[in-house]
Amino acid sequence: MKNKILGLCFFTSIFLSAQNDYPYPSLSPMGNISQIIGNTTIKVAYERPAVRNRQIFGHLVPWDKVWRTGAGHCTKVHFDKSVLVSGQPLTAGTYSLFTIPNPREWVIIFNADTTLYGSGRYDSAKDVARFSVVSKKTDRFYEAMTIDIDFIPNNAQFYISWANTQVSFEISTSTDERIADYIKENLLTGKSKVSDSYAGAASYLLYQGKNYKLGLELADKALALDANNSWVYNTKIAIYEQLKLYPEALNCVGLAIENTEKRTYEEEKYRKADIDRLRAIYQRIEEKMK
């Protein structure tokens, strides 16, 4: 009788498996992030477990033990260029992300083995970066484990949040260094003959708040290649304002208006709009000089 019941259960299991062609939702659905930070693309693929009325940290996820930082297969993080994670270098490539949660701080681990299911075969010898971060409580409740990438100019803050707990760490890209090299090798040498390349570099320095003097030099080189590059006039005016060189800024506004009056427009209303905008800038700068 027992064998008959076991046989029936086995047959029923096979039957249900064979008949199950409906796409039932996963309890831990896949999550994917792709974010451009400066000149670097960061991608994350992870399975997102949910709280589902369970106690998470210290229970479902034990304290002081290696955790896969998700569910199912290991969480994977890909960088298309070399970066620094919390100050530690990582070459371009794909890594698994493990953590060791603790009430006060977590250990963050980037590991070279991306084939793992869970953390059972995790090998610390394959770690490529390991560091600690402070654990924080959140006002928001995260039902599903969530990875977020926020960014500040050219660098990122990587967040791991679940229930009312959150940790984060900084990812630094090589954007500034690469642009500095490009400016030195291609623009300051005059190798590039494209006005917008110089204009773009000047604008970049303006909005990064860096080396305004170099920004003005590059803007002048852009105008030498194309005197009708209106983008450059706007950049020069803004740099002069940042440096509080208001007479120079007013002179540049005047040159921009002259250029606008001569430049070809598809419709006159666009010329008028640009001139009105420049006159408003002129008045604003005059107010600063009082």
Automatic annotation (TrEMBL):
Pfam families: DUF2911. This is DUF2911 domain-containing protein. It comes from Pelagihabitans pacificus.
